[in-house]
Amino acid sequence: MNQSTSKQVKTEPAEPELQGESSSSQNVTRSSVAQPSHEPSATTPVQPSQPSVSTEDDIPPDENPLLIDPYVPFTCSICQQMEKCIYSELKTIDGYYPFPVYFMRDPFTPRPRIKGRKPLLSDFLVLGGPCSLCSSPVCLDKSCSVYFGNLFCAMCIARERKRFPEKVIQTVLKAQSNRVKGEEPEETN
Q1: Where does the record place Polar residues bias (predicted)?
Q2: CB-based contacts of 34: which residues, under 8 Å, 6+ apart?
């Protein structure tokens, strides 16, 4: 029956409703009819030898979406602060960060118990983000990074002094000197 149908489509002129359309639509109509073939075609689905039933045990742990940990390790490239947090864009109803940041729920304040309340920026603790020049992760401490249109690490600011205003450079240098003064010297044995 398929052979007679395909022959009928090939030999008969197009139906009246198709005559006004372009020839490409007629070709699509003709080619959409299955033609018998003894050779397997590329579009013929291959039947698996066994039915594929996957369970949670079959999926490797790093590919199982139920076991993926949303937290990533964050280490500041300058002060070496380490923390597990989320790396993503942070957008809430009261504001957003214009670049992806490392953040977590603020562990120092309890979550509000108001049903239906959407989270605010004040509910999160932002740890840092990637430097716009070198892409290394830096924390938001004044001695490690400065936001000047984008986030820049202190190393890039020192290296690219001519690209920044003197006030930005002075802010970083002052914060770094205060940090060095606040640290106790290491004892050597």
Answers
A1: 33-54
A2: 2, 6
